[in-house]
From TrEMBL:
Domain of life: Bacteria
Class of enzymatic activity (EC top level): hydrolase
SMART domains listed in its UniProt record: PGAM
GO annotation, cellular component aspect: cytoplasm
Molecular function via GO: phosphatase activity
Gene3D superfamilies from the UniProt entry: Phosphoglycerate mutase-like
Entry keyword annotation includes Hydrolase: yes
Pfam families assigned: His_Phos_1
Protein name, as recorded: Histidine phosphatase family protein
Length: 222
């Protein structure tokens, strides 16, 4: 079975003193802690490459926080950062707002909160999972072409699309409680993909920057 591993890397902490749901808004850069997280991931991948891992592809969402997270790893591995639009953050009606119970009680929002299973406030979970898994399959095939069996790729993305892709790959329902996502800042959701069929044959979750998580932002989807 020809296979490659694709690491879905969530970006680092973002500077967001107002606590808004920034979604796809521009100019939300990494915080100082976020930059430390990005450096930590670069060190993690550099160690793996030193130990023999063949990491041959690196791409990120178009959003600045993902591009900034990818930059230290690109420098450490000598790779260029490609831009992969299919792994961008999910669309969300509440983008730019601080989502509080008081805000949700405003009548203008009611049509958007009728169906949390889809969800009605943004891009459907199915659509998110489909685009991220399609990008991962293409990255796996490209990595295999460049590096052969066991080669690896890194895609820097966002919490909700990564989580939707994981749920889909594991055959679990896509509707979920956002507070229970296992996808912390700069965590890795690593998919080993059969490049001949595109199927996910194994999945592993790790937190290389776990020591930096205490005190970091915990807004779901941020």
């Amino acid at each position: 079975m020809p296979s490659s591993t694709v690491h879905l890397l969530r970006h680092g902490e973002v500077y967001n003193p107002a606590g808004v749901l920034y979604g796809r808004l521009p100019d939300f850069h990494l915080s100082e802690l976020g930059r430390q997280m990005a450096d930590c991931l670069a060190e993690h991948f550099a160690r793996r490459a030193h130990d023999g891992a063949r990491i041959v592809l690196l791409a990120a969402s178009p959003l600045i926080r993902a591009q900034e997270t990818a930059a230290p790893t690109a420098a450490a591995l000598g790779l260029e950062v490609g831009t992969e639009p299919r792994i961008i953050e999910a669309e969300n009606h509440f983008e730019g707002l601080k989502v509080t119970p008081r805000e949700l009680l405003k009548p203008k929002h009611w049509p958007y909160i009728l169906n949390p299973l889809r969800p009605s406030w943004g891009e459907p979970y199915e659509a998110q999972a489909a685009r991220v898994l399609a990008a991962a399959r293409d990255a796996a095939r490209t990595a295999y072409e460049r590096g052969g069996e066991g080669s690896e790729a890194i895609l820097v993305a966002h919490q909700l699309p990564i989580w939707a892709a994981r749920l889909k790959a594991e055959g679990r329902p896509l509707a979920h409680d956002p507070r229970k996502r296992e996808c912390t800042l700069t965590s890795l959701t690593s998919l080993t993909i059969d490049t001949s069929t595109g199927s996910v044959v194994s999945l592993r979750y790790t937190e290389p920057a776990a020591r930096l998580l205490p005190g970091a932002a915990t807004t779901p989807g941020a």
